[in-house]
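INTERNAL AUDIT FORM
Audit reference: QA-55
Scope: verify that the stored structure record matches its stored sequence.
Auditor: D.O.
Record contents follow.
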Amino acid sequence: MKRARCLLLVVLPAWQLPLAADPLLFRVEGEHGNAWLLGSVHTLRPSDYPLDERIEHAYAAAGHLVFEIAPQDFTGPAAAITALELARFADGRQLADVVDDETLQELAALLRKYGTDAAQMNGYEPWFVAMQLMNFTLLHHGYSPLHGVDLHFMTRAQKDGKRTSGLETVREQLGIFDALPMERQLALLEQTIAESGNAGPELARLMRAWLDGDENTLAQIADEEMQADPLLREALLVKRNRRWAAEIGRMLATEKGDVMLVVGALHLVGEDGLVTLLREAGYEVRKVSGEEAPRK
C-alpha cells in the first residue's frame, strides 16, 4: 500500500523475514538519564519475537515507558467508545450517502473475502472504514495489533510495575482523521480498496527497511506516500513530531533515570522526524549500534 499504509505508519507483509539486523533504536542523552527512542511497528506475529537484544536492554534500563497513547487509555473500554463516537456520521448519514456504487461494491467484495458483512460499515465515515479494511487485510495475512511492539511493551511494563504514560489521547490521534475533509476521506478509502489485495512488494520493502533500521529508506517511503497530500503529512507527522519533541525535551530535563519511548517508526526518520528535531534542539542523539547496548 502507499498512502493508506503510511497512515498506520508501519504495517507488515505476510511472510517471514530474517530478524532485525539493526533495530531503529536511538539513545538521547539527558541531564539525569537517557531517553531510548524505539521505532515500532503496530502489528506483528508471535513468531516475530523475541526482539533484538538491544531493545530488551533498553526496556530493562528504563523505569518509565512512554507510548503514543497511554496503556490505560489505549486498552480500556473508553478508547473504543471514543473511536466509535468519532467514526459515526454526526448528521445521521450513511456510508452509501457519500460513496459511489462502484466503490461500495468493491468494498463489499473485499469485506466478504475477509469474512465481514459490508452492512456493518454503513454508519461510519470513510476514514474509519479505510482503517478497518487495513486491519482486516493484516489479520487475513496473520498479523495482529495484539502482537504489535507497542502493546507488547505496554503489557510488560504494567506487569513489571514500570511507570507508563502517553504523548497524546485517543481522541487527539483519531481526531486527525475525523477532521479530514470528506473528499480526502473518500480518496483514502478508494486508495485502500485499490491496494488492499496487492500490497506485498511495497510492504516487503517497508518491513525490510524496519528490520534493517534503514532510516533513509523509511524516510523515502514516508515522502513517497505523503507527497500527494501535504496537509495530511503536516497533521499526521510534522505537527505531532514537534509536540512530541518538546515533550521529550521536558522529560530529559526533569526525569531522573532512563525513559523508553515507543512510537511508530516513521515518526523517527526524515527531516521532520524526532531524531532530526532533537538534534536541532541541541541533544546528542546516537543510534544504538551492534557493538553497544544500554546498560541495566
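Auditor finding: record pair retrieved intact. The chain is about 50% helix and 10% strand.
Action required: none
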